[in-house]
Design brief:
Elements (H helix, E strand, L loop, with lengths): L4 E7 L3 H9 L2 H5 L3 E6 L6 H5 L5 E4 L4 H11 L4 E4 L4 E2 L4 H10 L4 E8 L4 H17 L9 E3 H6 L10 H10 L5 E9 L2 H6 L1 H16 L4 H8 L14 E2 L2
């Protein structure tokens, strides 16, 4: 079938939307790609609702970087896509990715379109896309993809609870520039709407500045994530529940 993709979706307390997110990937599964869901200790029914809608369902320790790393280690595809539960690929997203990889790209990302209708969100998404195009740094909202052998050569996904996308981009930049696909993925604007647009943007700037100055990712995560997003206590053992 050519290039096979492994879609890794790290989730935490995503019960309201997980079924919709996974059903959107059903056509890709039908074309031979695999979907791996990695739960980081949800306290709701995320795991129950995801069961049967993916090829593999894992439960790991908390921390999005750890979840992504676990999913990548279980992937069997030629390339891995890291997809958030509130981000949706375009219908032909797999074809766009395999085309970029077949054309010589080793990794890349999509432009992003935020779900809300305000003009402020249009400014945010355009700034995100432009910054990423100039710097080569991709965010998790942009559906990062990478050849599996290149990911392994770069040391895999950094197992940290925040800024894992920034750190992974830095590692991959050492091996080449990303393919910056102008086709857009749709991603939820809930983060900006719940926290306030200006406040959320300023918070993210502050977090990135602190990270560049050496503040550990786990301390930044404790500040960033609200309490309802915190995982349940972890028993220390990765489980494969499919």
């Amino acid at each position: 079938m050519g290039i096979r993709l492994s879609i890794v979706m790290p989730v935490l307390n995503e019960a309201p939307g997980i079924e919709r997110a996974l059903l959107a990937l059903h056509p890709l599964r039908g074309r031979g790609h695999e979907v791996i869901v990695v739960d980081g200790g949800s306290g709701d029914d995320t795991v129950g609702r995801a069961r049967g809608l993916c090829d593999r369902l894992l439960v790991s320790g908390p921390g999005r970087g750890r979840q992504m790393a676990m999913g990548a280690r279980h992937a069997v595809g030629d390339a891995v896509i890291f997809l958030h539960a509130d981000t949706e690929l375009p219908p032909d997203g797999d074809l766009l990715i395999t085309g970029a990889l077949a054309g010589g790209a080793t990794w890349g990302r999509f432009d992003v379109c935020l779900s809300g209708g305000s003009w402020g969100l249009r400014v945010v998404e355009r700034a995100m896309n432009l910054r990423s195009r100039l710097t080569g740094i991709a965010t998790g909202d942009q559906a990062m993809f990478v050849r599996r052998d290149v990911l392994e050569a770069a040391g895999g996904v950094p197992e940290q609870s925040l800024m894992e996308d920034i750190e992974l981009s830095r590692r991959l930049l050492g091996m080449g520039r990303p393919a910056c696909l102008r086709d857009t993925v749709w991603t939820s604007s809930r983060r900006w709407e719940e926290g306030g647009l200006v406040r959320t943007v300023l918070t993210m700037w502050a977090l990135r500045a602190a990270y560049r100055l050496g503040v550990p990712a786990h301390r930044l995560a404790a500040f960033y994530y609200p309490r309802w997003r915190q995982p349940r206590p972890y028993g220390g053992r990765t489980q494969d529940i499919l």
